[in-house]
Design brief:
This protein is α+β, with helices and mostly antiparallel strands. It contains five helices and six strands, in the order αβββββααααβ. Strands 3-2-4-5 form a four-stranded mixed β-sheet. It has a two-stranded antiparallel ribbon with strand order 1-6.
Length: 170
């Protein structure tokens, strides 16, 4: 009885203007997920505010991805990407570092779709470092895992209107 009621509710929300049930339309795309990790070397340019990528290397385990940070004071920090991803904002130095990492191969750790990972030359210290990373992107793509993802096509009318309709509180 409950199952039938659930089906009725689903179908009643998916009807055309005449009240007839319609099938949901989907867009299907292929997503490339990295199986390799990245080790990114960064150099601090301005105290805690600006970093540039010196070098990027592929490593075997994605979970071991890390940033090696050469600080202006001569110290070197090694930070796991997992710690950067899970930072609650308590360390203000991490924010500009994360921003730079999103413009290099490290984005493959933070973004599940490698198709969106394109290094930006303005975040690299030298053209050689950028060219190396651009070439490594192709290696990462060839070793990535692919899968198909279906997402509902957006609509301009109906429940939710194709936009997020989640309550924001209150």
């Amino acid at each position: 009885m409950v199952f039938a009621l659930g089906i009725t509710l689903i179908l009643s929300g998916c009807t055309d203007d005449d009240g007839h049930p319609r099938l949901m339309e989907y867009d299907e795309k292929t997503v490339h997920e990295s199986t390799k990790g990245v080790e990114t070397e960064l150099e601090e340019q301005e105290p805690g505010d600006e970093y540039l990528i010196l070098d990027e290397r592929m490593i075997d385990e994605k979970e071991d991805s890390r940033a090696i940070v050469h600080n202006l004071d001569g110290t070197v920090d090694t930070l796991s990407f997992a710690s950067l991803a899970n930072d609650d904002g308590s360390n203000p130095r991490y924010s500009p570092m994360r921003a730079v990492l999103m413009y290099g191969l490290a984005r493959s750790f933070f973004n599940p779709n490698m198709g969106n990972v394109r290094p930006d030359p303005s975040y690299y210290k030298t053209p050689g470092a950028y060219n190396k990373s651009a070439g490594l992107r192709e290696d990462m793509m060839s070793s990535s895992r692919t899968r198909s993802v279906r997402t509902p096509k957006g609509s301009s009318k109906g429940y939710g209107g194709g936009k997020s309709f989640r309550s924001s509180g209150g």
